[in-house]
Specification:
There is one protein chain. By secondary structure, this protein is mainly alpha-helical. It has helices spanning 3-31, 36-62, 77-83, 98-111, 118-137, 148-162, 166-184, 198-223. The longest helix is centred in the N-terminal third of the chain and has 29 residues, at 3-31. The radius of gyration is 20 Å and the shape is globular. The N and C termini lie far apart (79 Å).
């Protein structure tokens, strides 16, 4: 597939993914009678922070292998920042990392807690479409050309119909991503302690935060004074 065609498909599917996810978010918020101006404001912030987050993660974890403006090969994040400091903000370049986009979206959603759960189905459907773009473009294949993009697209479509809360999405996706990373051959994003990839450690971090929050909530509930019924 020619480079121009591949990039066109990539950005077209990315646009469709963001547009569709935004429609799902807006519809869910509208059904709950949220003000239209507030919906538009929160949605715009989520989209912008999601795009920037995905690009920043791309730079942080995929810097080695880039080509500098002078044609030299980049070997580290520091070299990329020196040679091309605005790389993360050129949105017309390919290279978007889902977990970075998720962190960006969560940053905004948590600032507006009443809108948090509207992001669940929006993220699920958006990623399902986005992974189709990865497949058709030919990127993100797994070991032995395993089509992990299609596997993840199908899994996220299933989650779209299955979940309603953001926590449910985060738990299921983190477990899925941790496992599927063994098929993704994601060395380009970094392999760290215990031979686990960047995405696997992020998955474990998300699961740890959610588990800690659940334990804290359970502990607080157990400390609440019990009302006794006098007989």
């Amino acid at each position: 597939m020619g480079l121009i065609v591949a990039l066109t498909i990539y950005f077209l599917m990315t646009f469709i993914a963001y547009f569709t996810g935004s429609c799902v978010f807006a519809y869910a918020a509208y059904k709950d009678h949220r003000p239209m101006f507030a919906i538009a404001k929160v949605l715009l912030l989520i989209v912008v922070c999601s795009i920037l987050g995905s690009k920043i993660f791309h730079v942080l974890f995929e810097a080695p292998g880039h080509i500098a403006p002078d044609g030299t090969l980049i070997r580290s994040l520091w070299e990329l920042m020196q040679a091309d400091p605005w790389h993360a903000f050129r949105l017309n370049d390919p290279g978007y990392v889902f977990y970075g986009g998720l962190v960006g979206a969560l940053f905004v959603a948590l600032a507006y807690p009443g809108y948090v759960n509207y992001t669940a189905k929006a993220l699920a459907l958006g990623l399902s479409i986005g992974r189709l773009g990865c497949f058709w473009t030919g990127c993100c294949y797994g070991l032995a050309e395993i089509p992990v993009q299609l596997m993840e697209s199908g899994f996220m479509l299933w989650l779209f119909f299955k979940i309603d809360r953001l926590d449910d999405l985060l738990i299921r996706y983190s477990l899925w991503r941790f496992g599927v990373e063994f098929l993704r051959a994601d060395e380009s994003r970094g392999i760290w302690a215990l031979g686990l990839s960047t995405s696997q450690w992020i998955s474990l971090g998300i699961l740890g935060v959610l588990a800690g929050r659940a334990l804290t909530s359970a502990f607080k509930s157990s400390q609440m004074p019990q009302t006794r019924i006098q007989t």
